[in-house]
Design brief:
The structure holds 2 protein chains of 2 kinds. Chain A is an all-alpha fold. Chain A is built from 14 helices and no strands. Chain A folds into 2 domains: 68 residues, no CATH class; 208 residues, MetI-like fold, CATH 1.10.3720.10. In chain A, helix 3 crosses helix 14, helix 5 packs antiparallel against helix 11 and helix 8 packs antiparallel against helix 11. Chain B is mainly alpha-helical. Chain B is 74% helix and 0% strand. In chain B, helix 12 packs antiparallel against helix 13. Classes of the chains: A mainly alpha, B mainly alpha. Chain B: It is found in: Cell membrane.
Chain lengths: 326, 296
Amino acid sequence: MTREEPDQHHPPPRSEGRGRFWTEERPQRGTSEDATREDAASRRPEPRERSERNQTRHALATIGRATFLAVVLGFFSLPLLWLASAPFDAHPSITTSVPEFTLANFRSLLDNPYALSSLGNSVIQAGGSAALVVVLAALAAYALSRVRVPGRDALLYLLLLLSSVVTGTAAMVPLFELATRLNLIDTHLGVVLTLSGGLLPAAIFILKDFMDGTPASYEESARVFGASPLQILRHIVIPLVRPGLATIAVWAVANVWGSFLQPFILLRDPGKSPGAVILYTLYTEGGAPRLDLISTFSLLYSLPVVVMYVFVSRRYGFRFHGGIKR
Amino acid sequence: MSPADPAGLGRARAAGFVLPALVLIGVFLVFPALWTIYLGLTDYRLTGLAAADPQVVGLGNYTSALEDERFRNSLWLTVQYVLGSAVVGQAVLGFALAWVLRNRPGPVKRVVEGLVLLAWILPSSVVAFLWIALLDRDAGTLNALLHTPGFAWLLDHPMPSIIVFNVWRGTAFSMMLYGAALENVPPSHLETARLAGASTFQQLRDVVLPRIKGHVLTNLLLISLWTFNDFTSFQITAGGPEGRSEILPVYIYNVALSGGQLGFGAAISFLVLLVNLVFAFVYLRLLRGRREAVSP
């Protein structure tokens, strides 16, 4: 639009008075009013000259934008390229077909005693946390949504505040101590409970929003026909808020799947460690890092998160909620 | 049938529904936070005499932290890290991307957004190694591209390295948030400003900024909070070399869990907690204010 002759829309030459009137009519103009008025008043170039300058300006803007985007593309893709190329660069001298490469690298995954089992551990910990978070959060959110308790909103805000304040970083010492005293070191349960405690407040908060949005009249009629509260929850409320439950489950799985700090401090046995920790030990262990192993393992370990993200964003139009990320 | 309780839960059963979640939150979120305060007042250690019989040392940990060169260095590095990578890096790059990509559907937008998002959703262990590989001294992609073989980015410039890394890692959130915010700016206002000859900078300052002020504040608070607590750089530099990239989270880990000074580490943790509290409190006040403004 900029390259169109602007004066077409305002055929008469703008006097200073008109300009002032025009700008004052629009409250959003803000303080640029002064700058533009000065500009318009001091030097009003001929239409032709102006359109040429606009064209130059437009061309420069396009070039600038393209350069910026190219640089950004390079910046963001450069580190990622390795993840796409390394599995095939592992044996640069062998120039045979791609499938042989992947087979060879896959074998190195099988040979490593911890690689594949760590993904199993990730599944256990992520699945366990997601199940716990969804069940407990659904129960709590339902009760908080349907029964008016004094101070309910304050409690929810307080919990949400706590969950963003008490991060793994801020609580690593007491969490480690707590797990030690409860004999939860080196157990999946320790990781699941620790991570679930941090995820629950936000999960309750989001699910309560979902439950508030479902009409209570179904529940009332079910109650008239003699359904118990748990039956109502199971057969009426849960089907209604299923997208919310799915969102929470995927969000919890993605969070736990990527978590490094908590399993890192709570687990010492590599046989129990999830993919995040095993991958870290793969490249910090002494000796030359096994690049074939690291690259294939990284790819395999990343895939579920990417797939989940794509799935949820396609299916539910998932926008990350304000404070909800990790 | 009271309208306040359509499912007939009743107070007692409702409490039973809420209780399990509250117990878990209480034990694994609230209690650790309170316990940090107590542990921070003791000389508790992982091993040795002070492990068996920890003594209360009052504010001793805090005074010795203030005298500790390593702690002050870590604090300063943390300020650089938060300001450099979040407030300046992520917020500015995120806004620039949202601005350039606004109202511009097409493959370019999808590819750029996809890559930026990918950097954000990949697990931290993976991206940490991707950056180690990128910056590797001998075979790193960056040295190959720049024809600077043997340049040790992570050893000679650890702080700039992890700052740039964190910009790469976290820009997606700012980009998405600003992208949503810019949808609130009516195109007609931008158009009129442009027709009146306002430069891009003037448009941003006078038309866009007043409308997205709330988003800017929200964004800055959240990304600062996250960056302040971010542990991913541990997986790249582990705070080294010689503590030159030892931001507070890494410092706490190194001192408390690696070095065994649990009491001292808890004291530093408590300071982190307090800073987090300030961030979160301001954020919640903002959220509440906005809700009230929308539905008075």
